[in-house]
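Notes from hallway chat w/ T.B., transcribed later so I don't forget. T.B. wanted the structure written out for a chain they're using in a teaching module, and asked if we could keep both sequence and structure tokens in one place. Agreed to drop them here.
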Amino acid sequence: MYYNSVTIKVGSNVLTQSNGMLDYQRIEHLAAQIAHLHKQGTRVILVSSGAVAAGRSMVETNGTKDPVSQRQLLSSVGQVKLVNLYSQLFEDHGLTCAQVLVTKQDFSTREHYLNMKNCLSVLLDKGIVPIVNENDAVSVTALMFTDNDELAGLLSSMMNTDALFILSNVDGIFTGMPGEEGSKLVPLIREGKEDLSSYISTTKSNFGRGGMLTKCRVAQKTAASGINVHIANGTRDNIILDLASSPADVNHTRFEANSPRPAIKKWMAYAEGFAKAEAVVNAGARSALTGPKARSLLLAGVVSFYGEFKKGDLLRIKDEAGALIGIGRAQYEKAVAERHLEDKRYRPLVHYDYLFIFPDVH
């Protein structure tokens, strides 16, 4: 096999029929492919949507509940059905699976993050297939992942898998709407080499909560962490096996992996929502931080702060136009930073070892 370890994210549009109910035949085929990979020695983490769709076949909603309550209801009931289905299918191939339900808060600190990593490591070491999903029953809007693409990217970076497969119902990233005349599949995307902004907005589709824009952002972050990302059509027969053995022969989009990054930066890549405060930087600092060489954030480049922070807290770093540049871990508290704001020789607010610059910032 081309890869020794993969994280596979399967979207709702792959797992469901046109009527919104689960497509059992396709799920069976996906499970069989994963089982084959597993028997070839490939470690697999499965991030599966489909709980809400499974719940629809079991519970009738009367239309009076708000959307969050409906999602909680359907996912609570449907998650049991979905995991039981996977469990039976994997058992047919002699494999054991485990359910891992998470919320965004489970990744909010390095301690939580490492606990989650340990849980998945133990399962994989025992030859068990982890099936991961967001715990929609207890997640509320402020604490939700954008969708399972974001969760899959975080898990792939955390576990340092060789690749992330994002399976949807289209072949990948197109230069326009898929199927439209003149719209072409983009086979390869490399950091800083392709400008997706000219057509990313036209490739949004009704995939769960996120859309193609989310998929691209997740793919860029994950590839920046040193992991190859493949966005492909999960409705195509044997797609998982083909991506794992000969990805160059599959019509899809690959985001080329950069050099591997330290573990702390892999966590920080997905930690935007956990930042305690913001540091606004001037044009010179922005240029230095986003340039080709690793730079620390000096107080001389800071214009202002928003929110309170202590030593070790995460800071969102923005430019004066409000654009998010990156995430960094403060080396000292806000009071110290403000006291030395005019001191150009004072030690960096954020050292480059604890600074993640988003790959789509230019």
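Follow-up for T.B.: Confidence is low (pLDDT under 50) at residues 201-210. Might be a good example for the class.
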